[in-house]
Specification:
single chain; about 300 residues; alpha+beta; 7-stranded mixed beta sheet; 5-stranded antiparallel beta sheet; 15 strands; about 25% strand
C-alpha cells in the first residue's frame, strides 16, 4: 500500500499563477516557483539568497508541447536569477518563462551539496528524456562523505514528489522493465493498472502498456506500424519526434517499428495513435492481456466497484 504524503502549498500573492512555495512535512527542503514576471518578488525572498538549485523552464519552439530546461546551482540563487533575467545579448537567457528554486529550510546546504544535486538532476533529466536540456555540459558528480550522499539522495527523492505537483515532470522516470520480469514486483510504486495490449492482427503486431501513477506507459519491445497512414495532425508530429529521437526504430525484420525503451504518453489515445499509425481511440483499442476487457470498461468497473463500496 502506498504511503500518503502531506504537501503544503502557499500562494504567496494569493493567486494561482503567481509565486508559490511548496513543502513536505518533515522534509527540510523548500521549493519555490514563479513565472518570469514575478522573479523580482522571488529574488526578494530570503530563501533565494541561500545556496540552492534552480530550474529555468520554457516552451520548446521546435517540439509542440515539449519544454526547454536549464538546470543550475549557486550559493546565491537570487544573483544567478538576476543574471539569467537579462536579455540574451547581455549574457542572459530569453527562452524561459518560469523559474523553480530548491533550497533548504535549515540553510544547511553547502556549495558541495548544490553541485552534487545539480549533477544528479541533470543526469536524471537526461535519462527520463522528457525535456530538452540546454546545459552545454554535465558536471561530474562531486564526491561527498557517505552520510552527505545519503542526505542528498533523500533530498532528490522528496523533490521528485513535490515537483510533479507543480507540473514539473522532468524527473519522473518510467519503470525500468515490465512488471513480472523481475522477482520484486513491488518496484512499481503508486496506482498501477493491469497490463494492456493493442493487437494489430493484419500485421501481426502487438504493443504492451500500463498506467502507472497516472501516466500511460508503452513498454520497450512493443511494436508499431512502420508508416503513418492517417491525417497529418498532432499525433503524427509526436510519432515523427519519437522516430527522430530513436524511441521508435526499425525492427530486425524491417517490417515494423519497435520501442527501444519505455515511453510515457499523456493519454491512451496518444499511445494508440503512435502504434497504429493513425488517429485511434485508446480507450477501446487497449485491452487487458488476459480478459480482453477494454481500458474504458476497466475504468468503468473500478468506478462501479467504488460506488458499491460507498453504499455498503
Amino acid at each position: 500500500m502506498s504511503i500518503g504524503k502531506t504537501i503544503r502549498l502557499f500562494l504567496a500573492e494569493g493567486t494561482p499563477g503567481g509565486l508559490l512555495t511548496a513543502e513536505i512535512m518533515n522534509w527540510t527542503g523548500h521549493v519555490m516557483a514563479a513565472p518570469r514576471s514575478d522573479v523580482a518578488s522571488l529574488m526578494k525572498r530570503d530563501e533565494t539568497r541561500r545556496t540552492g538549485i534552480y530550474l529555468l523552464l520554457g516552451d520548446d519552439p521546435e517540439n509542440l508541447g515539449e519544454q526547454l530546461v536549464y538546470i543550475g546551482e549557486s550559493d546565491d540563487v537570487s544573483n544567478r536569477l538576476r543574471q539569467h533575467s537579462r536579455n540574451e545579448d547581455q549574457g542572459g537567457k530569453d527562452f524561459w518563462d518560469r523559474a523553480i528554486v530548491l533550497t533548504s529550510k535549515d540553510a544547511n546546504l553547502t556549495k558541495a551539496h548544490a553541485r552534487y544535486l545539480e549533477s544528479r538532476f541533470i543526469l536524471l533529466a537526461t535519462q527520463t528524456k522528457r525535456v530538452r536540456l540546454l546545459n552545454s555540459t554535465t558536471p561530474e558528480t562531486k564526491t561527498l562523505p557517505e552520510a552527505d550522499v545519503s542526505d542528498m539522495e533523500y533530498f532528490i527523492s522528496q523533490a521528485k514528489i513535490v515537483l510533479p505537483v507543480l507540473g514539473v515532470n522532468m524527473f519522473r522516470s518510467a519503470p525500468a522493465r515490465e512488471p513480472g520480469t523481475t522477482e520484486n514486483k513491488n518496484d512499481f510504486l503508486g496506482q498501477t493498472s493491469p497490463i494492456f495490449e493493442l493487437h494489430i492482427k493484419k500485421d501481426n503486431l502487438v504493443a504492451r502498456a500500463q498506467e502507472i501513477d497516472g501516466e500511460f506507459i508503452i513498454y520497450e519491445g512493443s511494436q508499431a506500424r512502420d508508416e503513418w497512414s492517417g491525417a497529418d495532425q498532432s499525433y503524427k508530429k509526436l510519432r515523427d519526434k519519437l522516430e527522430s529521437d530513436g524511441t521508435l526504430a526499425s525492427a530486425t525484420e524491417g517490417q515494423h517499428l519497435r520501442f527501444t525503451h519505455n515511453q510515457v504518453f499523456m493519454s491512451p489515445s496518444a499511445a494508440a495513435a503512435v502504434v497504429v499509425g493513425r488517429n485511434a481511440n485508446g480507450r477501446t483499442e487497449w485491452r487487458i492481456q488476459e480478459t480482453r476487457i477494454t481500458y474504458a470498461d476497466w475504468q468503468a468497473q473500478n468506478i462501479d466497484e467504488a460506488a458499491g463500496e460507498n453504499h455498503v
